[in-house]
Structure formats: structure tokens, C-alpha cells
Amino acid sequence: MNASVFGSAHSLLHSTNWRLVAELAVAVVVLIYAATIFWVYKDARRRIASPLLVGAATLLGAVPPFLGPLIYMLFRPPEYLDDVRERELEIKAIESRLGVAELRCKVCGCGVEPDFLVCPVCTTQLRQSCTGCARPLEPAWQVCPYCATAVGVDAPVTLAQSAHPRPTRTSGTR
Ligand SMILES: [Zn+2]
Ligand SMILES: [Zn+2]
């Protein structure tokens, strides 16, 4: 009688242990599953700008379980958004640096600043200054963008005028 009581108690303990182990295993798997979904969500947010696509990627991370994150890793954008933004800024900075460096005097080729009126080396007139505010004007401008003074056609433009004579408008052309 005693032996059978002990036996059933022992088997009960045994089965409880097994159930405990099984439940623990399920809990661990579920935890890892949740962690993979969370990882996909976090990674997608760093790589994808559109919230809708981030949601789609997270859904892919959840279904099919464990296989979804692997599929996501195959198709995710290769770069972080921060890196892309940083690189675009760098390219813009390089372009602006090159743009400044490319400004040269057409006659002697020495480097000039965008607001120089005359080349300091060969004294070629690079651009004329506004008669209203005295700021440097680009050769193509018809009006000063700073003070709206019309650029005089008969203003002295030494080289440009002799190379490309501007047609003077007369009143009797119509
Ligand atoms: Zn020059
Ligand atoms: Zn002006």
C-alpha cells in the first residue's frame, strides 16, 4: 500500500517535471520569436524611411516565424538611413568646394573669388558692379538682384563688349 502511494507520487512528480520542462521550452521559443520580430522592427526603422514599409517588414519578420527575419535580411536596404544622409551631405560639400575651386580668370587662369570685379593678376574685368548698390553682377544679369537697379547696356564692359557686341535696340524696328 505504501509502495503504491510512493509510486504514484513519484510518477506524478515525474510528469510535472516533464510538463515544466516543456512549458519552459515553449516559453523560450516564444521569447526568441518575439525577439526576432523586435529586431526586424528595429533594423527596418534604421534602414527604411516609409512607416508603411517598416510595418510590412515587421510583418514579414513575424510570418513565417524565424524564416521571415532571414528573408528580410536578404531583401533589406543595404545602408542605414543615417549613413545615406551623411554621404549626401559629404557629396554636397565636395561639390560646393569644387564649384568654388573652378572659378578662374578666363584670360590668365588664376583662381578668383565669385565677388571679384577685376582679376588681381592680369587686371581683366571679370564682372561689372551695380550702379545702385555697387555689388558684383554676373554678365548675364539684366537687373541687379540685390537692389533691382536695371543693368545699363552702355555700361563699360571692356572685354565682353568687344567680343560679343550687344545689338542696340532702336525705336524704328517695328
Ligand atoms: Zn587674370
Ligand atoms: Zn544693386
Task: Describe the protein's architecture and organization.
With 174 residues, this protein is mainly α. The chain has 2 domains: 10-82; 102-154, no CATH class. Helices cover 54% and strands 0% of the residues. It is built from 5 helices and no strands. Helix 1 (2-47) runs antiparallel to helix 2 and helix 2 (51-62) packs antiparallel against helix 3. The protein is rod-shaped and about 120 Å long. 6% of the residues are buried. It binds zinc ion (2 copies). One zinc ion (ZN) binds next to loops.
Q: Helical region count?
A: 5
Helix percentage range: 40-55%
Number of strands: 0
* H-E string: HHHHH
Query: What's the mean pLDDT score?
Result: 83
Low-confidence stretches: 155-166, 170-174
Identify the overall geometry: rod-shaped
Q: Summarize the biggest pleated sheet.
A: none
Keywords:
mainly alpha, binds zinc ion, 54% helix, 174 residues
Topology readout:
Blueprint: H1 2-47, H2 51-62, H3 67-75, H4 81-101, H5 158-163
Brief write-up:
The chain has 174 residues and is mainly alpha-helical. The chain contains 5 helices and no strands.
